[in-house]
Amino acid sequence: MNAPGTGKVVQLLQSRGFDPSAEDDLLDLGLTSMQILQLADDLQHEIGVDVDVSVLLAAPTIGALEEQLSGADRTP
Predict the structure, then answer these.
(1) CA-to-CA distance for 72 and 21, rounded, in angstroms?
(2) How far apart are CA 51 and CA 41, in angstroms?
(3) pTM value > 0.85
(4) Which residues form the Carrier domain (predicted)?
(5) Chain centroid to CA 28
(6) Torsion of CA 59, 2, 16, 49, to 10 degrees
């Protein structure tokens, strides 16, 4: 069983028409700043983690981001 949050970034991006892999960077995929803001909001609702946009931008890859999110504290 996957840790909570694992794969959610990829799933959310796929639902928006992107073709991401764990090795991709969000900006390299062509996401706009508004799409990144929406992704942060969607992740909060999907996995119960308050995701700051700086975390999304600082992660070197989607895989690294998902690893960070799987260990993050959940919001009530």
Answers:
(1) 21
(2) 7
(3) no
(4) 1-73
(5) 14
(6) -60
Cβ 61 vs Cβ 45: under 8 Å: no
Q: What does the pLDDT look like over 4-50, one tens digit per residue? A: 444 889 999 999 999 998 899 999 999 999 999 999 999 999 888 88
Q: What angle do CA 1, 49, 4 make, to 5 degrees?
A: 0
What's the token pair of residue 73? 């504290």
Q: Which two tokens stand for residue 68?
A: 């960070």
- 8 Å CB contact between 1 and 12: no
Tell me the Ramachandran region of residue 57: left when phi exceeds 0, alpha when psi lies from -120 to 50, beta otherwise: alpha
